[in-house]
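are you around this afternoon, could really use another pair of eyes. what follows is a protein written twice so to speak, once as letters and once as structure tokens for the fold. i want to understand how the tokens follow from the sequence so walk me through it. anything you notice is useful, everything is just below.
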Amino acid sequence: MQKNSTNRKEKLPMKVSPIGEIRYAWLKTPRPPYKGKDTDSGKYSVTLAFSSDDIKMQAWVKEIKALYPDGTKWPWKKDEETGNTLVTFKSTYRPRMVDAKRNPLPDGCFPSRDSVVKVAYVPNVYEDLGGGVNLYLQGIQVIELVEYESAPLPFEEEDGYVAAPADDTGKQRQDEPPAWEAEQPTSKQEKDDDSGSLPF
């Protein structure tokens, strides 16, 4: 079987996804490793939902598949409940996040489920485990923000212990991605040059 001529060790250029809606997000803290993979580091990740009938999304999927036509593993899955296509981007590093005008998001602001965004990513072709392509998360441009907010607890104030104000290192509740979203190989190319600009 003839292999694609793409040099799999060559770093591919940064790309931008079509506009999608966040379904799952681990952006404040990395998602803990799966059970049985304690040696793996956690991943920052975002999963976008696209209409499977979207022409731009279909063309984008074909573009990614063309990087490795013989591949068998891809960073997307059909949502059986809605029929949408779910595409996942991952990184060991927290992505840069900007608003619609490319201004950095305020400290502590993290887009959550139902936010409308575009994602900057670097495609990575790999041959292990049947081969395929994964998408290294680089940055997020927020078009419509739905910010994560924890639900208030139903307590009344009482006399007693008062804690110091919390900082921004507390663990964030995350929407749980589906079981099919398996870990994929990592690479040094996953982290783009921090000094570079996002292609939004």
Observations:
- Residues 1-8, 169-173, 177-185 have pLDDT under 50 and may be disordered.
